[in-house]
Design a protein that fits this description.
Distance between the termini: 13 Å
Radius of gyration: 20 Å
Largest sheet: 7 strands, mixed
Helix content: 25-40%
Shape: globular
Number of helices: 8
Length: 253
Amino acid sequence: MRALLEQRDEDVINLASFLKGSARGAAYNLLLIDEGLDGSEASQEHLLDALAAGRYRNSSLVWRHVLVALYAIEQGFVRAEQRVGIVCQDRQGLAVQELRMRSSRGVLGPERGDTAKLLECDWGYEVLLRAARTAATGSEGLSSRTAHRAIARSVGRVALELKCEPEILRMQNGDWEVIDLSSYNIANSVADLQSDLDIDDCDLVLVEILTSSPRALPCTRTFLDFPEVDNSPLLAVTGKPARWFVVKLPIRW
């Protein structure tokens, strides 16, 4: 899947086929795109070609920050003329954008001006995944003897700080091994955010993130009053009594 999305495999038919599982029965099909290389014009054209090849109904590409704002509007969480800061976690770190809520003919929508500000940091999904794999392979690192640990399901769960049970793995020589990362806390393996988010003047801030640690801005299926969360690096950076809220988009995997 990664090769298809990054166009290392440019066959749009394969990508269209891969998306069918998530799009089955959907009246509308939206693909989220991030800022930077992941949302370049070439990437957008690649995704649009795949949607066209798969003949998906009412398909569109949507900037991740815009979709967060639309979801907040649908939930009745924002009002017209508010300045809303949106922080999204991506594979390289955090992407921060400020949107203005505009109302036209009674319809509220986000106004997107500048592109998002990209902050490379240890809370990017790729860094978290590397830290989780390092914990799985141990001091020996990645080798033919530890490759089975690097691709264990536990690695992905630990990277997102999901509940992780001991896992039985098949080794290359046919033997079995149990890997237990249940006590590993990935938040202790990465550095806190030090960059300025530059969204202090926003009326409220929405945070869209997959990881579950309080330090990484926890996700819930509903909005969570962010000031009640302790030890968050982002809250410490702002130093302002802004209204922070966490949102988890109802995305089908």
